[in-house]
Design a protein that fits this description.
With 370 residues, the chain is an alpha/beta fold. Helix content is 35%, strand content 15%. It is globular.
């Protein structure tokens, strides 16, 4: 089983003064991950994360130049690269799959060409830069489709959701481009809702009907939303058997505190005291530093036992700081048409470092045990 981290915001954090410490001494956490057996860095890529007048969307502002910078740093330290192409100018997930600004108004045929051309251009240019991509996600958390509204999966009344034909066409375009540039690159199709066997069976059965040729079923697992270990692995092992595919956890997270990093506030974190029980989750591990460590230890042990091919922790270094944000106002307008919440980062209580950058016990629990 491989271990990986998604530290896509890392360079932007450093540029805003973020520092990390172990036992009072400043360290480079990427070096320590390597020592613990973490071998992959997962890096997201957005098409054009800027407004038309050049204002950045933040959260790494993960354009191609940024991807190359971070990938080269990772490679220099011994990491392999997993590229997570969002096919959007900013965050995509089951609630939003916003079309890149440059592709708006394009026909279905034009969009297939856009996906193919863009994927091929990215991989060819990465190759020219000396960045070898070992694995690639064609889309991010595409449980409900991608490139909305064209390939949005929608209720059909009875039977499978509609628009799988369009979604499969986009996936095949990205896969075709990948295989032409990198024949040995492993292809990942990544969903969330990882407890829901009905959704996974429908999704993968449908895309396989359209000859989508991929290697790995990728899943997000955040227990606040995705239920128990038992439900997760029952679903993934069923899919492994039914579709003859290996599976990986592309995103894993767990909070070490429910207290906000802004004194006197507790209304912005994704996981906080007044919302953590709304999904019916049984809390087996307390939201403390030790609880987070115990969660990591137990999860990795179970994942290995269940035959999971890899586990990636999502943004373990995203600590707070002046100018470190989950989204600029402009980015929020791009994805939803309005500014819906504060710009400051809302993930910081799920890192492997506390709000001052001190490594937590969970950091060294995320390791390959021999």
């Amino acid at each position: 089983m491989i271990l990986g981290v998604d530290t896509s915001t890392y360079l932007e954090e450093l540029e805003h003064g973020a520092k990390f410490y172990f036992e009072g001494k400043e360290i480079d956490p990427l070096d320590r991950f390597i020592k613990n057996g973490v071998s992959y860095m997962r890096i997201r890529l957005w098409h054009n994360p800027y407004t038309l007048d050049g204002k950045p969307y933040l959260a790494g502002t993960c354009d191609f130049k940024y991807f190359i910078r971070l990938a080269k740093l990772a490679i220099s330290k011994g990491y392999k690269i997993l590229l997570d192409i969002h096919y959007s100018d900013f965050w995509v997930d089951p609630a939003k799959q916003t079309m890149p600004k440059a592709w708006r108004g394009h026909s279905f045929s034009e969009l297939k060409k856009d996906v193919y051309d863009y994927t091929k251009e990215v991989l060819e240019n990465a190759k020219k830069e000396g960045v070898e991509v070992s694995m690639i996600q064609i889309g991010n958390e595409i449980t409900n489709g991608m490139l909305w509204p064209i390939a949005k999966l929608e209720d059909n009344g009875a039977g499978p959701r509609k628009n799988y034909d369009k979604l499969a066409a986009f996936l095949n375009a990205g896969i075709k481009a990948t295989k032409e540039v990198l024949p040995n690159c492993k292809i990942i199709i990544h969903l969330e809702r990882s407890y829901d066997n009905q959704v996974y069976r429908e999704f993968f059965s449908e895309i396989i009907k359209y000859n989508v040729n991929f290697d790995i079923i990728g899943a997000s697992y955040y227990p606040y939303w995705h239920h128990s270990f038992d439900e997760l692995f029952a679903n993934l092992n069923d899919c492994k058997k039914k579709f003859n595919k290996e599976f990986m956890i592309m995103e894993l997270g767990y909070a070490f505190t429910l207290e906000d990093y802004v004194k006197g506030e507790n209304n912005h974190l994704v996981v906080r005291e007044n919302n953590v029980n709304t999904f019916g989750m049984k809390i087996e591990f307390p939201f403390t530093k030790e609880g987070q460590k115990d969660f990591i230890t137990a999860f990795l042990k179970r994942a290995e036992k269940e035959g999971c091919s890899g586990v990636f922790f999502w943004e373990p270094l995203l600590i707070p700081g002046e100018g470190i944000a989950w989204a600029s106002k402009e980015a929020q307008i791009y994805t939803s048409g309005e500014v819906s919440k504060e710009e400051r980062s809302d993930w910081c209580n799920q890192c492997f470092a506390d709000y001052n950058g001190n490594l937590l016990p969970s950091f060294d629990a995320f390791k390959i045990t021999k």
